[in-house]
Amino acid sequence: MLPYFRRIRSNLDMAKELSSEHTPVFEQLKRFDENGAEFWSARDLAKMLEYSEYRHFLPAIKRAKEACKNSGYDVHDHFEDILEMIEIGKGGKRRTESVKLSRYACYLIVQNADSAKEVVALGQTYFAVQTRLQEIRQMEEYNSLPSEKEKRLFLRNELRRHNSQLADTAKNAGVIDQIDFAIFQNFGYQGLYGGLGARDIHARKGLNKSQHILDHMGSTELAANLFRATQTEEKLRRENIKGKPQANQTHFEVGKKVRQTIHELGGTMPENLQVEDSILKLERSKNKKLAQAGKTNLDDQPG
Hints:
The chain is α+β, with helices and mostly antiparallel strands. It has two domains: 13-124, no CATH class; 139-282, no CATH class. It contains 13 helices and four strands. The chain has helices at residues 13-18, 25-28, 42-48, 58-70, 103-111, 118-137, 140-143, 148-173, 178-192, 198-205, 219-238, 244-264, 279-299; strands at 31-32, 38-41, 79-89, 92-101. Strands 1-2-4-3 form a four-stranded antiparallel β-sheet. The longest helix is centred in the middle third of the chain and has 26 residues, at 148-173.
């Protein structure tokens, strides 16, 4: 079986593999348990990642479990030791040890696997993107939003929340004061926007100093920046990164990887996306409608 991402060898192979028209081998290996929950076999994943023997794959699983624990998750929710049947030749089968993996566990394993392997390096981008997309798909609130305006409001609030978490995580890494955090954020922008910092983005999009970049993004650009923020936060925690230079470089590398993914999927680079009206106007309008609705409900109460 050819590994995922290499079934179609052309300049568009990764974009095609990530599209809904082509199912990556990773998704083909997905299984379902008796409760209908998706999972993957560690032995299947080892073969897909081109490990010659399962025992060579075990250190990657161990590192992934440590990363899971460091990220604040219960390891047992994502890694479950199991016995599974494998073929041993001439139609014979025997039970052997394996691990039942969640999607998140697969992502952590690929992040901790041998990146010298081409399939692993490509997989690191794939799993990160797919993990975040899955989270967004599962957001019933987001899926039920009727308009681009509502999606912008939702993603902007998510980004505010995750930027706050990112600030706390960066502080633990050594990014202490406000100026340090501004520099740290700028590194993330430079990675995602092809070398453009906050000032450059302001100039390119025709924004003045008082206008916040994030407040003038559409849902697509907000989603890219949300992905940058969440993945940077997780990488800082997972790898226990310390020191301002190391934290800054991490933010840049994550932003650059998100940009690479956008390119591979044939998307528009964030600096070329349309500038939107300030989201603050949308928030004021929404708050005004909520206030009016509340007043109407009070007026309808019997006196």
